[in-house]
Structure formats: C-alpha cells, structure tokens
C-alpha cells in the first residue's frame, strides 16, 4: 500500500472548502425552483414572467462563463469563488426584500453572476492539487456532492419558506453566502505553491503523484499563438466538450431549477411533499451516479462520448414514458423518471474531461468556461420556451397535464441539436487528435 503524498490532507481541505462553497451555490441556484408557486403569488406573475426570472439568471450565468474562464486563468480560483459567494449573498438579500418584479430580477441576476464564478473555479482547483489519475473521479464527485444544494432547497428551504415566510427564507441564504465567502478566503489557495509549500524533488518513477497540471504542462507547453480565447475557440475538442455538456443535463435543469415542482403538483396531481421528495430523488441519483461515471471515464476514456450519447437517449425515453401515455403517472414511474433524468447532470461533466484532454493548463480555465455554457444555454432556452407555451396553452393560469405535455415536448429541439453537434464535433476532434481516446 503506497504512502499518501504529504500534500494530500492540505489538498483535501482546499477542495473540501471549495466544494462546500459549490453546495451553497447550487442551493442559491435552485432556490427559485422550489418557490415557483410563492413567486407567482408574491409578484403576481404568469408562467412566462416566472420563466423570465430563471432565464435571466441563466443568461447571466452562461454569458459570463467565457469571461470568467479568462479571469480564472489570470486571477485564480480562490478570488472568484469568494467573490461569487458575495454576489450570491447580495442577490438573495435583494430578493428577500423585493416586492416588485424589477427587484426580483435584479436579485436573480446577481445570483446568476455569483453562480457563474463558482463551479468552473472549483473544477480548476482539482488538477492543481491532485494527481492526473484522480481528476476525472474528483470532478464527478464535485458535481455530485454539489447537488446536495438541491436537497437543501427542496427540504429545509421549503420548510423555512412555508413556516417563516419569504423574507426569512431568502435572507438566510444571503447570510449563508457571505459566510461561505469568508471561509473560502481564509482556507482556499490556488495551488500548493500559494499555500507556502516548496516543490519536492521527485524521482523519475514518481511522476504518477504529480498534479494533473504539472503532467499536462510537461506534456504540452503553453502555446505561443494568439490569446487564450482564440486558441480555445479554434480547438475542436473544446467544442466536443461543449456539445456533451449541452446535450446531457438540460432537461434535468428544467426540472430542478424551475418547472419540476410545478409539474409534479399541477400536472401529476402530487402533494408538495411528494414533489419535494421527487426532486430529492433526482439529487440522490446524481450523487450516486456521478462517481461511477467518473471512474468509468478514468478507466475507459475511449467510452466517454459514447456513454454521454447512451445517457442522452435514456433521458429522452424517460420523458416519453412520462409524457406519452394519457393521464398522470404512478408514483413509481415518476421516481424512475427522476432517477434517469438525474444521470444527465453528472454525464455533462464528461465534457470537462474531454476538453481537458485537448488543451494545455494555461487554457484550462477558458476552455472550462466555454464548455460550461453548453447545458445552461440549452436549459435557459427550454425554460423560456416552456413558459411561453404554458401561457399560450393555459392563458388563465390553470395548467393541466396536457399543457405541460405539449410544452415539455419542445425540449426535443435542443436534444436533436445536441446529438448532431456531438457527432460532428467528435469526428473533427478525432481528426485533429488521433492519439486521444474519446
């Protein structure tokens, strides 16, 4: 049994604190999804305007991914994670005090901006602190454990919202965000060098314990051509990662971030407790499946994109099983649906691993930012289209299963686009990088 590297405890501490900040970010991101009915009543809005709240948040999130990636390569993850937590805390404070639509929109925009800084920064820390063989698994664990934030929104946040009211629920999120910023600023460091450690001389045979960033740097030095953004945009492997991320998670985000709770209650006739439980099942399934997918990506890199395609097909079939037959579905079918759809979330992280295989460390933040726009572009387009369709199909606000069925059918469009994009970009990546398993 090998002896752990001296930096392992420090690496786990840095990653653990950053991971906790990501849990808080997911809690903030998904808080509106469990408060959809209360949001409608508080601000007197219909489905289209309610969707606009979530879409505004995701537009900011997706739009900032590339700028955040560029800043990440320049400023490092610690500053961005802490700054993101501050922005989310301020956004939730604005939302807690808002009584009109403009204030609510401003709050969600601030939440989206802070959220945009968090995940890509946490992912950027992993190759700086851990050996390359552990990066795919830890990336999946990060994504999976981060989804605990959805459980926090679906259970304790709902309890506070129903028991203490709007202001207390969103005010508590503001305090939590500011506390997360303080802890990150105190304990997270961008790399072992920043933590005050000196490099140890390694024997040639000890390369397996080098961090992923060191291995990639030795393998491919920093390119001498134009800026980071231009180099990343011209890399087909980054676009392959983008399309993997576009295709696999967006319908799960539609369920968790906005329409799932209302669909289960209004469309399927479930109680609010059952709807919260179904959202929690989604999270548990993502947590369980994430590490399994990470281990598969580490051991069988040649199956990464094929796995993403299989999962995308399974998710599509799950939607057909729920929306196709007439009438509401039994609770067991909805549980199975929540499990299958949830796997699309961790499957999207395969996109980051694919992109990491094709770029150098100097471009990794920018590449991660571009990849991370994929699923959120698909999700925000779907959410807005569903909201508009629901208002057209149920103009009085009395949404039934048929209205949800036809509105959700619009998600077939981004699904087809994602499949085509993945297949085309995979062929181009294989031509550009014949030695990389995809």
UniProtKB/TrEMBL annotation:
**Residue ranges annotated for the Major facilitator superfamily (MFS) profile domain, each copy included:** 14-430
Membrane topology, record value: Multi-pass membrane protein
Mark the transmembrane ranges.
Answer: 49-72, 79-99, 166-188, 238-265, 277-294, 306-325, 331-352, 364-386, 406-424
| Gene Ontology cellular-component annotations | plasma membrane
Please give the organism. Answer: Cellulomonas cellasea DSM 20118
GO-annotated molecular function? transmembrane transporter activity
Give the UniProt keywords, A-Z: Membrane, Transmembrane, Transmembrane helix
Span list, region Disordered = 192-212
Q: Where in the cell is it found?
A: Cell membrane
Per the UniProt record, the lineage of the source organism begins with: Bacteria, Bacillati, Actinomycetota, Actinomycetes, Micrococcales
Q: What is the designated name of this protein?
A: Major facilitator superfamily (MFS) profile domain-containing protein
């Amino acid at each position: 049994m090998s002896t752990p590297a001296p930096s392992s405890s420090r690496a786990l501490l840095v990653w653990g604190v950053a991971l906790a900040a990501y849990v808080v970010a997911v809690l903030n991101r998904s808080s509106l999804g469990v408060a959809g009915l209360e949001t409608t009543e508080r601000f007197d809005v219909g489905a289209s305007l309610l969707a606009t709240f979530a879409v505004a948040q995701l537009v900011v999130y997706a739009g900032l991914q590339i700028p955040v990636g560029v800043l990440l390569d320049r400023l490092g993850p610690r500053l961005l994670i802490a700054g993101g937590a501050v922005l989310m805390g301020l956004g939730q404070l604005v939302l807690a005090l808002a009584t009109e639509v403009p204030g609510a929109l401003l709050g969600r925009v601030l939440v989206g901006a802070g959220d945009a800084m968090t995940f890509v920064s946490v992912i950027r820390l992993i190759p700086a602190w851990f050996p390359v063989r552990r990066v795919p698994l830890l990336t999946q664990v990060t994504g999976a454990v981060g989804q605990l934030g959805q459980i926090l929104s679906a259970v304790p946040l709902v309890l506070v919202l129903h028991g203490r009211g709007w202001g207390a629920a969103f005010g508590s999120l503001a305090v939590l965000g500011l506390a997360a910023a303080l802890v990150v600023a105190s304990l997270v460091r961008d790399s072992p060098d920043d933590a005050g450690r000196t490099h140890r001389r390694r024997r040639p045979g000890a390369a397996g314990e080098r961090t992923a960033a060191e291995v990639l740097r030795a393998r491919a030095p920093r390119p001498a051509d134009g800026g980071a953004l231009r180099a990343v945009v011209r890399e087909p492997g980054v676009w392959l990662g983008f399309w993997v991320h576009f295709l696999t998670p967006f319908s799960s985000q539609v369920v968790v971030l906005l329409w799932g709770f209302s669909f289960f209650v209004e469309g399927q006739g479930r109680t609010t407790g059952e709807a919260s439980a179904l959202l929690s099942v989604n999270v548990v399934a993502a947590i369980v499946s994430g590490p399994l997918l990470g281990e598969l990506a580490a051991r069988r890199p040649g199956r990464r994109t094929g796995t993403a395609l299989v999962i995308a097909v399974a998710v599509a079939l799950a939607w057909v099983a729920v929306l196709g037959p007439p009438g509401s579905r039994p609770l067991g079918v909805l549980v199975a649906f929540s499990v299958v759809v949830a796997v699309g979330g961790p499957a999207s992280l395969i996109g980051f691993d694919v992109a990491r295989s094709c770029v150098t460390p100097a471009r990794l933040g920018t590449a991660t930012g571009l990849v991370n726009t994929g699923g959120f572009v698909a999700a925000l387009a779907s959410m807005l289209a569903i909201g508009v369709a629901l208002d057209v199909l149920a103009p009085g606000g009395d949404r039934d299963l048929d209205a949800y069925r036809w509105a959700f059918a619009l998600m077939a469009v981004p699904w087809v686009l994602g499949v085509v994009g993945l297949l085309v970009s995979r062929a181009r990546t294989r031509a550009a990088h014949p030695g990389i398993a995809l």
